[in-house]
Every structure is written in C-alpha cells, then in structure tokens.
Amino acid sequence: MPEFIVSPLYNDPDADVVLRSCDNVDFRLDKCILRRQSTFFRDMFTLPSQGNEPQIVPVSESATTLEDLLPFLYPGGRPEILELSRLRAVLQAADKYDLAFLDDTLKTNLALFLPSEPLRVYATAYIMEDASLAQAAAKCLLERPQF
Asked: Cross-referenced PROSITE patterns, in alphabetical order (predicted)?
C-alpha cells in the first residue's frame, strides 16, 4: 500500500497538537482551530500539555477520514465528498467530535446519493436519526421497480 501523503495544510511544523489516525498517520494541527469548531476538542484541550512538544491525540478514524473532515474545520472552503462510504465516515466523525455545524452540509451531500444509492442513504439517515432524509430515501426505494 502506498504511503499516505498528508496535505501541507495539516502538516504544520509549528503545530501544537498531532491527531494520529488509526493507521498511524500524523496530522499536525493547531489547537485553536479545533477548539473553536468543537466542544469535544475545547474540553480536551483544557487539560495542560506536557512540555513544548505537540500533544499527541490518537483517534480511531483513518487518515482518509481525517483528510476528508479537516477541510470543513480549517478556513478555505467546503469540499464535496464523492464516495458515500467516505461521507458516512465523516458524518460519524462529525457526530463523535460534536461538530453539529456540519450537519446540514454533510446531510445535503448525503442527499446527492439518493438517486444512485437510496438504500445506503436510508440506512445512514436512519443511523443519523434524520427522519426527513430517511423518508426521502424510502420514497426513492419504492419508486424503483426492483424493490
């Protein structure tokens, strides 16, 4: 497997925190940005750090999921996630890290998959407790002759 290349935006040599993915890829980030976006990180970073080295925070997300999630947190835009499985992983991470401000954006992206993958959208919407999106997915399923 080729080595994962971290975007220069998430590889800051002056970073004060390192998010280490479950596949051992380091994302060197700024606590102040994470703290502003997430109460999860705000609470985590109230604890004092040890020494001058960046705080290392192991996370259960893959490098790909972090690479997909971080553009939503850092200035510079809102990317479109093209694969449903990747979007689902970002939705789960956003929920885990209390990034409620992303709900509408991510669910709008999820709705783009209604025509092509209504069953997977339904399952994801159900898990995310989004009744209106689950209902829209159910309607798409019922309109398909094979169901």
From this structure: BTB
Query: Which residues constitute the domain of residue 62?
Result: 8-81
- The answer as to whether 34 is a domain residue is yes
Amino acid at 47: L
User: In degrees, to the nearest 5, what angle opens at C-alpha 92 toward C-alphas 4 and 90?
Assistant: 40
Edge-to-edge order in the sheet of strand 55-58: 26-29, 17-20, 55-58
Determine, yes or no, domain membership for 66. Answer: yes
At residue 124, the pLDDT reads: 93
Predicted local distance difference test score (pLDDT) of residue 78: 66
**Tens of pLDDT along 20-75?**
999 999 999 999 999 999 999 999 888 776 778 899 999 999 999 999 999 988 88
User: Is the confidence at residue 147, as pLDDT, over 80?
Assistant: no
Residue 32 lies in a domain: yes
Residue 72 placed within a domain:
yes
Distances in Å between the alpha carbon of 108 and those of 96, 113, 139?
Answer: 19, 9, 17
Q: Is the dihedral of CA 22, 28, 31, 35 positive or negative?
A: negative
> What pTM was computed for the model?
0.85
Number of domains forming the structure of the chain: 1
